[in-house]
Write a structure and sequence with these properties.
The protein has 294 residues and is an alpha/beta fold. The chain has 10 helices and 11 strands. The strands form 2 sheets. The protein has a 6-stranded mixed β-sheet, sandwiched between helices. The protein has a 5-stranded parallel β-sheet with strand order 8-7-9-10-11, with helices on both faces.
């Protein structure tokens, strides 16, 4: 049985083997009378901390394993892949697999379904099942086609090197409401992916050019990758992209309404990647920061 947490109610299951994905506002698996001889739980870090009633991952993991017959705990970590715990100990760190596009809606459901298929039905170990699930997520994020098994279609993406990445610099204007909103969303989204972020608006704010520019360039020197918000063709953003390219930083540029003829220099630069999707831009720049430090 694969049991999902539901907004509309709760599903009571009595299973020999079960994968539980609590989702959202997590409840203990047994709280509603459910039972399973073998149980794996798939959840993200915030759900883990809420369910484990703890402020750090290790304590939450320990508490959940102490509560009963838990076989495996899979902690999804976004751009970092996932961590697999067995017997309250970390048994594997599974990388994410790169996809050309990152369509996020439904990726959590695909992961849980693929993990359930491979751990429960195919008899794979929890780390192996999580690895297949990570590959299936990459396939779905790129094609929007669900898959739950390891095959040629789900084995094309390259794994992203795990570990902490460097600082990502957000280059973008913030002089109008919609410009500022986009900078704020990019800042929040990268923080949620566990990325260290520098934003001129958040760190320096406005000031005299003689004060702002040296701090701006120093932050670029200390960064591992740049997210450029290109719509509008802001001169300051283009200057920062040029500087980043000159010092060898990878640049991921989000251009949704920019004319292709205005992107010639970026499209021809080996360190630049131009995308037209916000979620894809966030994931690609997070991964680019890791590769820059590898």
């Amino acid at each position: 049985m694969l049991r999902f947490g539901l907004m509309e109610g709760t599903g009571v299951v009595n299973a020999e083997t079960c994968v539980y994905d609590p989702q959202g506002d997590p409840a203990d698996f047994r709280e509603n009378g459910s039972s399973a001889s073998r149980l794996s739980i798939v959840l993200n870090l915030s759900e883990l901390l809420a369910l484990g009633r703890a402020t750090d991952e290790a304590a939450a993991v320990e508490r959940l394993f102490a509560g009963g017959n838990l076989s495996a705990l899979i902690v999804k970590a976004g751009a970092d892949g996932c961590r697999v715990y067995e017997n309250a100990r970390l048994s594997a760190e599974v990388p994410p697999y790169k996809s050309a596009r990152v369509y996020k809606i439904g990726t959590g459901d695909v992961f849980s379904a693929a993990f359930a298929e491979n751990w429960m039905m195919a008899g794979r170990s929890a780390p192996d099942a999580a690895d297949v699930a990570s590959r299936c997520v990459a396939h779905y994020a790129q094609t929007r086609t669900p898959a739950v098994r390891a095959d040629e279609a789900t084995s094309v993406g390259a794994p992203v090197k795990p570990g902490a990445g460097g600082q990502v610099y957000i280059a973008g204007p913030f002089f109008t409401t919609h410009e500022l909103w986009l900078v704020e969303e990019a800042y929040r989204g990268l923080k949620e992916l566990g990325v260290k972020v520098f934003s001129l608006y958040h760190e320096i704010r406005l000031g005299q050019p003689s004060e702002v520019v040296p701090e701006d360039l120093a932050a670029l020197d200390q960064s591992a990758a740049v997210l450029a918000l290109l719509d509008g063709g802001d001169p300051g953003t283009l200057f920062e992209v040029g500087y980043a390219t000159r010092i060898g930083l990878p640049v991921v540029a989000l251009a949704q309404s920019t004319k292709r003829s205005d992107l010639t220099m970026l499209l021809g630069s080996p360190n630049c990647r131009v995308v037209d999707d916000f979620s894809t831009a966030l994931y690609h720049v997070a991964w680019a920061g890791r590769r820059a430090l590898a």
